[in-house]
Amino acid sequence: MPADSERGTPALPHTWRPLGPRLAGIIFGTALFVVCAFAWYGWDEETRARFTFLQRATLVFFGLLVFACMYALIRSRVVAESDRLVVVNGYRRHEYEWAEIIAVHLPPGAPWATLDLADGTTAAVMGIQGSDGNRAQRAVRELRRLVAEASASQ
Which of 4, 59, 77, 113 could form a disulfide with 127 if both were Cys (CB 3.0 to 4.6 A apart)? Predict the structure, then answer.
């Protein structure tokens, strides 16, 4: 009998995280910070002194806002546990019992996967990003197998 990893069903608990948005957030966020820091310290003292406290506070505020948005994308994940599926989209956390999940979809061109729920609604799964290509397709197949196994055991 093949092992779980050979069949495509991951051992639980298992976490899926998007690779592309994580790399983009870390790399571009760091690059943006470095460029801004070099620009600020590249100016002479007279130019930096022309910025008022409010202007400096505004720049810091927008920097923190960009960081918060990037961090929200970076922390997105899907965690399959034996009794539930935990979906973290940005700063929101959703927990679904396996019985609540009907299907998992990632149509071509979709930004992320979606869950069809038993109550007729859908839920976004930002932890599986369509931009990750084959990695995302593999994650959707694994998640579908887990949903199928959970519904077969009921």
Answer: 77
